[in-house]
Amino acid sequence: MRSSIQRFALMAILTGAMTTFFSAGAALSQALDLFRAATPPDIEAAAGASKRAGAARERVAALNDGALAEAPALRITLFPGVVATFSKTGSETADGGGRIWTGSDGAGGEATLVFARGKVTGQVQLDGRAFEIRGAGGSRAHRIIEVDAARLPPEGPLTVPKDLPERKSGTLPDASSAAAAGRTRITVLIAYTEAAKAAADDILAEADLAVSLANQGYKASGVKIRLKLAGTILVTGYDESSASWEDTLNNLSGSTDAPNPAPFAGVRKKRNRTEADLVVLLRSESQPAYCGLGHYIEEPGSGTSKFAYSEVELSCVSNHSVAHEMGHNMGLNHDRYVVGSAPKSAYNFGYVLPRKRVRSIMAYNNRCADAGFNCTRLNRFSDPDATVENKPFGVEQGEKGAADAARRLNETRTAIAAYR
């Protein structure tokens, strides 16, 4: 009798596996092409688009109208000879309008696409390379850009607010209690300058893309945070090119030494009105000094809410710079190679895995660049319990070179969510 039950169970498992296999195969065989060849009018429409920092090459393609529907799989021709088919892994309503479609090629490649207002704004990671998809003009024309991380500006230096309250130890939950807690919702208000709006084909889709990429990074790292876009707001009457990044961050947060906080008064009011825990400013310059800059709050708590601000260069949204700068607000540091000496007990660092040529969201590219190569920024936080090609993607607390940003986020998330 037992052998009959076992045979039945085995047949059920095999049947389920075959059904899944053939269903996935059917989806791939029915994949829609996201783009078609661009016509001369499409190319002309894209001619006036703003240049993107970090662009290694780009081409113009036209959106296939049929791909605007909810597709189980999409085939994306990024460049001649660079083609990938992505099966849908998720779809949700975008807070700024439209839908967010996510997909995987089954071999580590990922696509995140915001379908809104007849256009696509997205990011694709494939074979260690990063690509951006952006609308261009009023037609179906889109720009596909391969990004060279070595050409992007660096993330800004660690910036500790001058009047940050003195650190109080023992105010955060320990790792075990943090891991046991359920998912925490954290809200973010995304502001944008007039220059950023002009440079973006769809600034609202950029905001949605930033939030979606951050959420994917949290999920992939076992971080129990769900980021929610609380709203967006245009900042008028402010020229970011005429002020330093440090001054702009102080102006944005309304710090006591801010030289020109007035243009951002509406941002701070809307933060209170929408009860946003965090605020990110999207800005744009032709030659940005940084990809981003955010206040570093080592120990988030009830007295640090007023410092939870950061700013990001528009061209760096697909570089996971929004998640990076918010990470500073949540208590995360850069990787140890650029930080230098730090207490052995600390573990809130990014991580670089040179042998695999990858790095985490909080890590700089310096260690790899100094060795003569580039390391791809993965959409993941350091985590010693996770692996990349069978290598740990972090170091346990208490060990030499400790790096476990995922653990630290799980410890600080409830304090951040209590800001508003």
TrEMBL record:
It comes from Ancylobacter novellus (Thiobacillus novellus). Residues 154-176 are annotated as: Disordered. InterPro entries: MetalloPept_cat_dom_sf. Residues 1-26 form the signal peptide. Transmembrane segments: none annotated. Keywords: Signal. It comes from the Bacteria. One of its GO terms (molecular function) is metallopeptidase activity. The keyword Signal applies. This is Peptidyl-Asp metalloendopeptidase. The lineage of its organism: Bacteria, Pseudomonadati, Pseudomonadota, Alphaproteobacteria, Hyphomicrobiales.
